[in-house]
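Title: [Solved] Coagulation factor II (thrombin) receptor-like 1, tandem duplicate 1 3D structure

Original question kept below for reference.
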Amino acid sequence: SDPVFNFSCKLWLYLPSNLDVYTSILICGFYVVNETKLGVFTTDTAAEVLTSSLTKVFLPVIYIIVFILGLFTNSMAVWVFLFRTKKKHPASILMTNLALADLLFIIWLPLKIHYHFNNNNWIFGEPLCKVLVGFFYGNMYCSTIFIAIISVQRYWAVTHPLSHKQTNQVAVCVSVCVWIVVWLLTTPLYLYDQTVKVANLNITTCHDTIRLSQNYIPVGYFLSMGTVGYVVPCVVCVVAYLLTFRSLRRSRTASSSNNKKKKAIILMVIVLVMFLVCFTPSNVLLMVHYSLLGAEIQNEAYSFYIVALCLGSLNSCLDPFVYYLISSEFRQNLKNMLKCCSERSAQQERISFTPKKASSSETTTSPTSTTAKLDH
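Solution (posted by the thread starter after getting help):
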């Protein structure tokens, strides 16, 4: 009889003894039982997740680790690429953009950390929540696309070693296009309410719930973004590295370069495994969750998704180590920078421990006056 139920009320009337089936009418992440002027009322399962130590302790702790490590390593990587690398080439240009994407992803994590520590209660308003969500997903998918482009660039460098040095302009144009396309693709996140009042918990969630009248937007959007931002880059990475591996196996080189080939193959395997491990679980769960939501089928995938998404963010901390393995120039510049910093700190320590020269008044003090002072 309550008009706010609309279509969901009809399902409830047909299934009065099965509240779980009724709750398949959903929201963005967790299930909503009812929506009133006071806010939405979630199911007991959703309430348990929103009040559990998983979301209030585990997730923010992982994000703190990502923030501390990622901020330091990616800031150092950006500094090396921009100010220490004299000769720019396609690989360094693409890796600079990847480091910037990771850095933009990381600098917004303190807001997400505060949100989880504050019992999943958002206090910074709707506009800032939309900005957080937009940067979170936008930069995450920027990272996947740039990793895919780097894999293509490495394949091109192996198969066309004489021409890859002349494609700096192509790398710049591709990077600009990626940033423009990804930020255009994130605009739907600003078109619906990201903050929702959960009345039965007396909290305001950011992105974890959505109003029933707006649920068609995230279902279509995240299925599309999962395809464009993960499936396509994943296929590109796998194909590019398989072709690179085949090219290295077929090439006839001197025995002295066999070690380099082995190192290149090991590096390809490491990058590919890192990509699959970090991004596959969260994106597969995301697409499964929203596919089931589109079919109005109840599922608990969202709870596993937020954990996989959190663990996948560790990729932002691992990327700088990939730069170190891929680029010998990056390794050399990093070592030089650290060497300069250590020499500078050692010099400052030597200066601070150097004894001061005795003043002229002290040097001219007579023995008798010294004796008088000691006797006194």
